[in-house]
Amino acid sequence: VDSYQRIFQRGLVYRYGSISNFPSNTYPGHNALGSGAWAGHHGIIDNTFRVREQGVDASPIREIFETEYLLGSAHANLPVETLHEAVVRTFGTLDEGNLTASINEPSTRGAEFATLERRLPGGFQLSDSADEVQVGDETYPLPRADLQDYAGVMDNGSLQTFAELYQDHINRGEEGLPIPRYTIVNFGSTDSAGHAHGPHGDHERYTVISRVNQRMGTMLDLLEYLELDDSTMVILTSDHGMELQDESRSFWRARALATAEVSVRQAGWYYYLKQLDFEIADKVEEAQDVRLTLRVTDRDSRDNEERVGVADVMVNVVNGGVAEEVYTDDEGYVELVVTPDDGATEILVDFDSPDWNGGREWVGL
Length: 365
Prior knowledge:
Layout: H1 3-8, H2 26-35, H3 39-42, E1 49-51, E2 56-58, H4 60-63, H5 83-91, E3 100-103, E4 113-114, E5 132-135, E6 138-141, H6 150-166, H7 168-171, E7 182-185, H8 189-197, H9 202-225, H10 253-259, E8 264-267, E9 270-273, E10 276-286, E11 289-298, E12 314-319, E13 321-322, E14 326-327, E15 333-340, E16 346-352, E17 359-364
Parallel strand pairs: 3-4, 3-7
Antiparallel strand pairs: 1-2, 5-6, 8-9, 10-11, 11-15, 12-14, 12-16, 13-15, 16-17
Helix pairs in contact: 6-9, 8-9
C-alpha cells in the first residue's frame, strides 16, 4: 500500500502546498518547521550567513553537526522556543520519563536525543547495520543505497535509528529509552535528487520517491506494531520547494556595489556592509588641548568580547576643533591631539578608508 496514501487518507492535505520560510533554503526551513518561527526570528537565516553580533561567518550546511548554538542568535532578546523545548516544558525531561528526538534533522535544540548534536542518552548505540530493519520479529529490507547515493545512505540510517529508538524499551528493558513523545525525522534524498536532477525529473519521480515511500511504510508498520498508530499524529512536510530560474537575470550584485564604491563582505548569498565603529581608549586634557586615544574597530564585532581593530583608517576632525589628520595602527589605535573651539564639548570626526565604508561620528571631549 502506498505510504503517502496511508497518511493522506487518514488526515488533511494542503492541496496547493503551503507558504515556505524565506529564504527557501535547507537550514532556515528545517528550523522554521521545528520552532514555528521565521528565519529572521530563529536566527539561522540561510545555509551560510554572518553572525554579526559575534563577527564571524557560520555555515551550518557545511558544519552539519552541533549547529543548534546558532538558533536565536539573530535576536538575543527575542526568545524562540522549539517544539522539543515546548514538549519538555509541558511533560518534563528524560529523567521524568519523557523524551523528544531529532533524527538526522537540523532542528535539534531541546531534544535530549539528537543525532546531529551527538546526543545519544542512556547508553543508546547506533546500529552499524545497513541492509535491513527489524520490527518485532519481522525483517524489512532497506532500499538500495551506496556511497554514490549519500542521501539515501543517510535516509536508511534515519529509518534504522527510528526503528531501534522506538523499540529500545523492548530490546533493552529497564535500561532502554522510552518511546519519544515527539520525534522529527529528516529524509534528505528527495531534496538531493531534486537539486541534482530537477524536482520533476524521472530520477526523483520513479526512483527516489518510491524509496522514501518504502521507508515511510516501514515507519508506519512500526507504529502499528507498537499500537501507536491510533494515538500518534504523523505530519509529512518539506522544508522548501523549487522552481525554474530566469537565466537572463544576473545575480552579480557585487558588481553594482563595487561600482557604487560600497565596501562589503560576502557570506553565502548575502552581502554585509563593512562599517567602522570606535571607542575612546583614553582622554587627557593638556592646557588648551585634549589628547584623545581612539580605537577604530569592525562594527560587526561590537558585541563580541574581543573587538577587531582596523588599521590604516584616516581620522580627521571636521567640526568643533582643530587637529592633524592621523592614521590608525595595526590594532586600530590612533592618538588625536585636538584644540577645541571655544565652548565645544564634542567634535565631529571623519573616518575614511578605501576598504571600509567611512562615516562621521560625534566624539565627546
